[in-house]
Design goal:
- This protein is mainly alpha-helical.
- The protein has one domain: Orthogonal Bundle (Arc Repressor Mutant, subunit A).
- The chain has 3 helices and 2 strands; from the N terminus they run E-E-H-H-H.
- The chain has helices at residues 15-23, 29-36, 46-60, and strands spanning 6-8, 13-14.
- The protein has a two-stranded antiparallel ribbon.
- The relative contact order is 0.21.
- The model has no long low-confidence stretch (mean pLDDT 97).
Length: 62
C-alpha cells in the first residue's frame, strides 16, 4: 500500500495518516474524522476511509 497516497482530497489526508489514526485508537469513521478531518468536507471519500479503517483494524487484531 502507498501510505503517501491521498485518500481525502479536500483535507489532503493520506492512507498513512488514516493508519496513524487507527493505530492511535480511532476504530470508527467518526473517530478518524475527529482526529484527521478526513471525509468531513464533501464526504466522497468516506467509503474509502471506512475500507481503510476496516483493513487496518483487522491487521492490528491479527
Amino acid at each position: 500500500m502507498d501510505f503517501d497516497k491521498v485518500v481525502c482530497n479536500c483535507m489532503s489526508i493520506t492512507n498513512g495518516e488514516i493508519k496513524e489514526a487507527v493505530d492511535s485508537g480511532a476504530d470508527t469513521l467518526e473517530k478518524v474524522q475527529e482526529m484527521t478531518g478526513a471525509g468531513t468536507v464533501c464526504g466522497v471519500c468516506c467509503d474509502n476511509i471506512q475500507h481503510l479503517i476496516d483493513q487496518f483494524v483487522a491487521e492490528r487484531n491479527q
